[in-house]
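Lab meeting, item 3. Inverse folding demo.
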């Protein structure tokens, strides 16, 4: 069974949810100005099944200087579905400003990663899959805008021993490189640049 949180908000607290070995379903929720010391400013899920729908995580951060990851959301050895989830103005000191995932399978659709920052993986850093037999994680109909990799070698989206399958609309494309170093895009990197 899922722990279900509906139509709630959290403001100005430490990590709102640390989820070891659990199942969580969140609908219509807003996290703002939340923080954690090391993983997942708003949510840290470990060995969990997570479903987020119509969730906004804004101004979340992780503050540990050496190993912090997942300013908004951190997933470890988990499976996650994010539908219409917004990660905005989230920050990590090292990796995954918006989202950090390791040994995880995720599916993201109709979401946005906006103005997140980290030295590497400003919007998203996907470190590894659970096993070689896992299907690829997926991203479709997602917007990536104004994310900032604060290191010259950093990326907006980084993949390390992981696969992401992108669903692109007609006229879009996604290069087969292992990271995306710059740019705003919707759905896939090859779309027409966003109007400013």
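The presenter then showed the designed sequence:
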């Amino acid at each position: 069974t899922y722990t279900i949180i509906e139509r709630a908000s959290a403001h100005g607290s430490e990590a709102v949810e640390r989820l070891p070995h659990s199942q969580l379903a969140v609908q219509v929720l807003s996290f703002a100005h939340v923080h954690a010391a090391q993983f997942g400013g708003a949510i840290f899920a470990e060995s969990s099944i997570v479903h987020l729908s119509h969730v906004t995580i804004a101004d979340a951060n992780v503050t540990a200087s050496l190993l912090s990851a997942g300013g908004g959301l951190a997933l470890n050895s988990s499976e996650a579905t994010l539908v219409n989830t917004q990660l905005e103005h989230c920050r990590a000191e090292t990796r995954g400003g918006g989202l950090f995932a390791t040994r995880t399978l995720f599916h993201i659709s109709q979401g946005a990663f906006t103005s997140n920052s980290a030295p590497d993986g400003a919007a998203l850093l996907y470190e590894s899959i659970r096993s070689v037999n896992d299907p690829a994680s997926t991203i479709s109909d997602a917007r990536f805008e104004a994310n900032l990799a604060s290191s010259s070698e950093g990326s907006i989206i980084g993949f390390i021993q992981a696969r992401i399958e992108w669903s692109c609309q007609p006229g879009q494309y996604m290069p087969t490189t292992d990271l995306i170093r710059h740019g705003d895009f919707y759905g896939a990197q090859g779309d027409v640049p966003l109007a400013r």
